[in-house]
Amino acid sequence: MSLRERMRYWFDNTMSRGTASLIGWLALVSVGLVLVVAGLTAWLTDEPEGAGFGEVLWLSLMHAMTPSKVASDKGSTAFLAVMFVGSLAGIFIVSILVGLLSNGLKQKIDRLRRGRSRIAETGHTVVLGWSDQVFTIIGELVKAHASQRGSVIAVLADRDKLDMEEEIRERIGDTGRTRLVCRTGRPTEPGDLRLMNLDKARSIVVLSPDGEDPDAHVIKILLALAKRAGDHPPVVASLTSSRNLAAARLAGGSQVHLVDSDDTASRLIVQSSRQSGMSVVCMDLLNFDDGEIYLRSDAALTGRSYGDALHAYQTATVIGLRRAGGVVLNPPMDTVITAEDEVVVIAHDDSLIHLASGQASFSEKNITVAPATPLEPERTLVLNWNARAEHIVRYLDGYVAPGSMLEIAAGHPKAGTGLDGLRNLTVNVKECDTTDRYALEALGVGLYQHVIVLSDDRFKPQHADTRTLMTLLQLRDMQTVAGERYSIVSEMHDENNRSLAEVTEADDIVISDTVIGLLLAQLAENRHLADVFSYLFDSRGSEIYPRPASSYVTKDAPVSFSTVIESARRRGETAIGYRLASGVNQPPHYGVVLNPSKSQPLTLGEGDSVIVLSER
């Protein structure tokens, strides 16, 4: 390589170092120009008279920086010519300098706009990734932090910073005292993760993105988090498939709590199909609006039985115990509470959890006794099919009596596949366009006790929700015309479509993405509640059941909720609230009241339900 080529290569490298390097070269050129002009002025002219070389340098510099000064020059022709050349060269230098500064500032502003600066917050909640769940999570965290000053939620996603902020503002609105910080970057890249100051974060939420193979993306983020140096705050992540849980646990380590989205949504759909209002109760327990779940230690309860503890709080409802072996909801009533146990309670705020003074007061004459109803074979109809439908059928098989019938009507090519080994259900599959009225009437829907309408995963979420709405409208009209009654539970994607679906008066509408988002927000705030929610969504042990109020208290008679609690206690159940039939179609709670006042009178009539934790 020749010397010229080496010099050119060196020059190109220095020029490629950015705006600072370019300004450095421009400064050298400017110094050279000033020296040349000053030298020519001193050599060729006697102007200005009596001036030293320093003054000539200053004059040359002013002409280079302010070319307009040449208009006021006086002197010999040679002096004017030298000043004109210096001023002309200064025009080019100043123009280049302005362009460089403008370009450098533009690059800096663009970098800030893209959100590439490292955040300095501490104790913040970090959300990695982007999906529709992000709006639910941020909205719930804003409610949880409403009374806290200086709380921060930081979002890192491979999207434009301004677009993220605008979309969040449109969907959520005012975030109150909680400040939102968005950064553009790939959560799988260690360099981008450093932007989030994870060492000082309170917790991290990893979202399962939309698109193909989302679990692989989540696992890669967990690997990046596990390999990074520094402190590792608790991590909550959602997966769409149970098959990937083992790999995700290996990738994330012990600091990660995994939420199986398909499994959780499948359990909730099945439980909602069995007990009307189940999804509404779970949504109320998962959000931060009213009743929330807390863990409480009270020395005054040590040595007392769980049954006695049900009446211990005036403004909180006891639902279980957290022991060394894990969480147990609705344990046997004679279970003795030890000093190491924590009581699991529902309360509107942790500041309202106080022991009641005096003995519980209830009305003995208003307590009713109803015989247990035996489990009998049932007929269930499933409309449509998707990837989680197999989970739904298998969980349903664990609930129903032997000899029960399941009819699957769908146009999906995989409908009814992978269902070997069922114990209690006999399955039939029919080809059906579930949006067609005549096809639905041909199924004889009135012969079934329960109808489950799933979201067809062959279509995009919004289109699938539209088809679901059409099916629900057809079913409602068929019920009205034929005078039939069967429970309907429907699965949808978008929470915004729920208000439209309310017109169909379906018994339950499960918004799977919203449920998972609420659960992630709860665990981000208090990961110790993971065992509580895992127990709630598990088919083993006690579960939530809305049951006829007349089975617990006298119908249409004023009673206190303490009387309801006592009636449920005698049946080995824990009462946590009630549901009024008059409010079934009234958002946002749809008639559900959790953790009501124990002393305020209430009247439960025909169609009203008592919500209890009970064994099946």
TrEMBL record:
Domain annotation RCK C-terminal: ranges: 278-361
TM helices/strands, residue ranges: 21-44, 78-101
Protein's membrane topology: Multi-pass membrane protein
Assigned keywords, A-Z: Ion channel, Ion transport, Membrane, Transmembrane, Transmembrane helix, Transport
Main location: membrane
Compartment annotation: Endomembrane system
Record PROSITE patterns: RCK_C, RCK_N
RCK N-terminal domain residues: 122-258
Highest rank taxon of the organism: Bacteria
Gene3D superfamilies: NAD(P)-binding Rossmann-like Domain, Regulator of K+ conductance, C-terminal domain
Family membership: Belongs to the castor/pollux (TC 1.A.1.23) family.
Name recorded for this polypeptide: Potassium transporter TrkA
Organism of provenance: Nonomuraea roseola
